[in-house]
Design brief:
The chain is 20% helix and 28% strand. It is elongated. The strands form nine sheets. A four-stranded antiparallel β-sheet has the order 3-2-1-28, with no helix packed on it. A four-stranded antiparallel β-sheet has the order 4-5-6-7, with no helix packed on it. A four-stranded antiparallel β-sheet has the order 8-9-10-11, with no helix packed on it. It has 574 residues and is of the alpha+beta class. The protein has a domain at 449-574.
Length: 574
């Protein structure tokens, strides 16, 4: 059975309610199960985190503290605090990358720290932003890191370049690939899409009451969304179809990329609304009905948000300690997840991977314990890009290594994956799948328009070569094609008599086409017979001409020989 879990953390703990037991008064991070059963599954104490300061891996939890320049590390398997890692300055946000083996941290002064938790190596950039880093996100490929700041800018970094030993000589003088500039106030939240291709997007929220959709690969602003209030948090739909934002009054608003508001400038365009250049300069204002109100005003500001695995359930963490559940299809508040409010404002909600898939296997390599940062331990290595001698990995194998089956008597059968499994596990849509889908879509669109039926372009016939499809037949074709995009909506389908009439008309059309085809085939057969007879006649004539020439030559040679004999006899007689 599939199960969904999420981690929640709080900031500056409020006064605990009298009804709360003593065992939960010091809990700062909790792990809950949301589906199929609801309940708390683990808790970790002594943590005080602000927004965007919680990261969860399969083995550990990293929580940057709000009042100290430290990061608390918790071991999920043992259920205790494993280490307290100090830093040179207070950490304001963090994110995991590279299969949870690298932790990216943003500081209060605007610098970026990249910490390899399995080696202890730390790469520190120079002052990347003018003010503190407010949000960090890593794209699904772990190739890019996006850092947002209170200075209203977003930097796009190359993570492989930051970790490369060939750049060790820079000594912190790293520079971002490019900067996304479009906001006029501090950025409050930042999310990145789920695609592994080069068309992935990022969405940023700012205190200037706007959200911007970016193409961070091309440094391009795709669309600007004007909001009625300051957005405090963001979460993106699992299929990147929409994003959700929350406000200080506890309400939630959904911004759908495929809504009429996004395509108002060009409603007939077939291009994706985000990538239509004709609409990029026009800001979008979501309608009021897309904003959902909380059950009561005492919930406080919505500080964090997350979506379920299928995108049908939205959860928001509020300043009064409650976690509210919203029904996405119905567009309204559903229930309160926590029976007892948490001990402070819920600043972080992090979804965890779904458990229970039958083919799920544990990761090949796991991290039993983190290695604390070794500042400047690898900076004085050889500057030619070589790996230093004190660079050691601290990992362990969690399962048996995949070894090929070797047999002296049996030949190993090749593993053939299905097209569905290949498409499902492919990082982007395969070209073959896209080509088949476009061809099928074209056939669906073409089925709704009456077109003449041509027998052959190479063999035209008389007026029977083209037969138009009757209207009744076209109506049945449209109603039968339930996947047609242009199929008309009807309250009831055709009757049996209408279907029979359409089938008879279709049969008659096919008979006419068949008759015309037979006539054309007979004509072609006659032309073939005549052509073969002409070819044979030409061959016979040529052979006859050759025989005649041979006879003429023989007679000439005979006359010449007779003349020679006559002359010889005359000479002898003289």
């Amino acid at each position: 059975m599939l199960s969904e879990h999420f981690a929640a953390s709080i900031s500056a703990a409020a006064v605990a309610p009298k009804a709360a037991p003593n065992s939960v008064k010091d809990v700062g991070i909790s792990v809950f199960e949301s589906q199929p059963h609801s309940g708390q599954r683990a808790s970790f104490k002594k943590s005080n985190t602000t927004a965007n300061c919680l990261a969860v891996s399969p083995s550990h939890i990293f929580a940057a503290q709000a009042d100290k320049a430290v990061v608390n590390v918790y071991n999920r398997e043992k259920g205790n605090q494993e280490a307290t890692v100090p830093f040179q300055e207070r950490i304001t946000c963090l994110a995991l990358a590279c299969e949870d083996t690298v932790l990216v941290l943003g500081s209060q002064t605007g610098r970026i720290f990249v910490w390899e938790t399995h080696t202890g190596r730390v790469v520190i950039t120079s002052q990347a932003h003018l003010q503190q880093v407010t949000a960090l996100v890593v794209d699904p490929t772990s190739n890019f890191v996006l850092s947002a700041s209170a200075d209203a800018s977003i930097h796009v970094w190359s993570l492989p370049a930051l970790l490369s030993f060939t750049n060790a000589a820079l000594q912190g003088q790293h520079s971002p690939l490019h900067t996304l500039s479009g906001h006029r106030a501090a950025i409050t939240s930042l999310v990145v899409g789920h695609s592994a291709g080069f068309c992935n997007i990022a969405v940023s929220a700012s205190a200037d009451q706007s959200c911007i959709v970016w193409d961070y690969h091309e440094n391009q602003l795709l669309r600007t969304v004007l909001l009625p209030a300051i957005p405090r948090c963001l979460t993106l739909d699992p299929a990147d179809r929409a994003f959700y934002t929350a406000y200080d009054d506890g309400s939630v608003q959904v911004v759908d990329f495929y809504s009429e508001a996004f395509s108002a400038a060009n409603p007939d365009s077939v291009q994706h609304p985000l990538y239509d250049q004709a609409q990029a300069a026009m800001p979008v204002q979501p309608p009021q009905q897309t904003r959902w109100t909380p059950p009561s005003a005492d919930q406080g500001a919505a500080l964090s948000a997350m979506l379920s695995y299928d995108g049908s359930m939205l959860m928001t963490g509020h300043s009064n300690g409650n976690v509210l559940v919203w029904d996405v299809p119905l567009g309204r508040y559903s229930s309160t997840f926590t029976s007892i409010p948490m001990m402070g404002p819920v600043t972080n909600l992090v979804p965890l991977p779904v458990q229970g898939f039958p083919d799920t296997r544990p990761a090949l390599i796991s991290q039993a314990a983190i290695v604390k940062p070794k500042h400047a331990a690898f900076d004085k290595a050889d500057l030619d890009g070589a790996i230093p001698g004190n660079y050691n990995l601290s990992l362990q194998f969690s399962r048996q290594l995949p070894m090929p089956h070797i047999s002296a008597s049996k030949k190993q059968a090749a593993v053939i994956e299905s097209d569905f499994l290949t498409a499902l596990t492919h990082p982007v849509f395969p070209e073959s799948l896209l080509a088949d889908s476009l061809a099928e879509l074209a056939s669906w669109n073409g089925s709704a328009k009456p077109q003449p039926i041509a027998l052959s372009a190479a063999a035209p016939v008389a007026s029977t070569a083209q037969v138009e499809v009757p209207a009744a037949q076209q109506q049945v074709s449209d109603s039968a094609d339930f996947m047609s995009l242009d199929a008309p909506e009807s309250a009831s389908g055709p009757t049996v008599e209408q279907q029979n009439e359409a089938l008879r008309a279709e049969l008659a059309a096919l008979k006419r086409v068949q008759r015309a085809s037979l006539v054309q085939m007979e004509s072609l057969r006659k032309e073939k017979v005549e052509l073969l007879a002409k070819i044979r006649q030409d061959i016979d004539d040529d052979m006859e001409d050759e025989v005649n020439e041979d006879e003429k030559s023989e007679r000439a040679w005979g006359r010449l020989a007779a003349t020679g004999e006559y002359l010889e006899s005359e000479e002898e007689s003289e």
